[in-house]
Amino acid sequence: MFGARQDSEEYDLLAPSLPIETDLGEKNQKKIIAVGSAKGGVGKSVFAANLGVFLAGRGYRTAVVDLDLGNANIHVHLGQHAPASRNVNDFIMKRVKTLNEIAVHSEYGPMVVSGGNSELGAANIKFMKKLRLIKALGDIEADYVILDLGGDVSYNSLDFFLRADCGVVVTTPDSASYMGAYHFIKEALYRKLARIFGPESSYRNEKNKDLERLICRMTAPAQGPEVKTVRELIDQVKEWQPHNLPLITRVMADFRPCLVLNKVPKYNNVHHVPMMIQEVSRKWLSKEVSFLGSISAQSEVEESVLDQVPVLARYPMGDFAIEMEYIVNNLLHNA
Predict the structure, then answer these.
(1) Into which CATH architecture does domain 4-202+254-332 fall?
(2) pLDDT tens profile 57-96
């Protein structure tokens, strides 16, 4: 969605060289938390599973939903050696009416809605089926619903990420990983703007064709985008459609991505990683990215993954538990 020159400029800022506390409070209503990443291998599913264990341990009704429709494995991280007999595919194919029907309790606390990748095309479901699935996420009987997304920037992952009340992007100190994390955040914001009046959007009843056309013309015209930064887009709205400025401001405010830095080598100062992502996001996206905290690289995590036991269940007083508590407290502060 951006021209080559802009891509070069913004990603140059993320090149290896160089914490903000989040503002996320507990409220008496269901919250959906999406956990995404631009690539596999960053520990996204481990984080999502243990987040579910942590919240369930605090007494919340918690459900973890596997929405990595092409490579479902969240059940493994919650002690289940095989996915449940019924999974998300059964809902997509209308063999069950609700996701509650396929949710099963794990021995470690949270309910699990298993993903399924056995049916051809499940990873690329048609838009109307995806809409039905997005709506069903809000009907799950739980206080917190955690979405484990695919490790990519596909429309599936972005749309599920945007459905959540809070989106967490997991990255590692590796340059390819954190550049990918910024790319995920950028694509999610531009997807939100492009789909501002889509049937899945909370702004669908405020449809304004003039604003829709302006956003499309400024961000994704056939000859290439006319804006380099989101600030330029907002300035165009302010100049040409000032009556739509409050709406675009609300849309921007509604997008609140958070960042978790995983697999951090002990005794290494890598705070420049979230700071770089925050700096580039402010400049190019006019968006604050809240840094929730970091998780150190630990043999305990690897052992737990191999043994299919959540880290928090095996080492409830370990370093991972301490780091998760800090991250989750930040997350819940405004969630």
Answers:
(1) 3-Layer(aba) Sandwich (3.40)
(2) 999 999 999 998 777 789 889 987 767 788 998 999 999 9
Please count the CA atoms within 13 angstroms of the CA of 209 that sit on its side-chain side. Answer: 0
Half-sphere exposure of 144 (CA within 13 A, CB side): 28
Taking Cα atoms as reference points, which of 216, 229, 203, 219 lies closest to residue 286? 229
What would the two tokens of residue 117 be? 């990748």
Residue environment code for 54-67, b if the CB has 16+ CB neighbours within 10 A, otherwise e: bbbbeebbbbbbbb
| In the chain, where the domains are located | 4-202+254-332
33, two tokens: 């938390």
Per-residue pLDDT tens for 29-60? 779 999 999 999 999 999 999 999 999 999 99
pTM comes to 0.90
Distance, CA of 236 to chain centre: 29
The answer to whether the CB of 159 falls within 8 A of the CB of 67 is no
Adjacent-strand bridge partners of 36: 169
Q: Residue written as tokens 């969240």?
A: 74
C-alpha 260/C-alpha 49 separation (Å) is: 14
Please give the C-alpha separations between residue 189 and each of 106, 118, 217, in angstroms, as whole numbers. 34, 31, 16
Contacts of 212 (CB under 8 A, 6+ apart): 196, 197
Beta partners for 31? Answer: 144
> Residue 26: what are its φ and ψ, rounded to 5°?
-75, 135
Instruction: Give the Cα separation of 233 and 112 in Å (integer).
Output: 41
The rounded distance, in Å, linking the Cα atoms of 16 and 234 is 30
Q: How far apart are CA 326 and CA 288, in angstroms?
A: 20
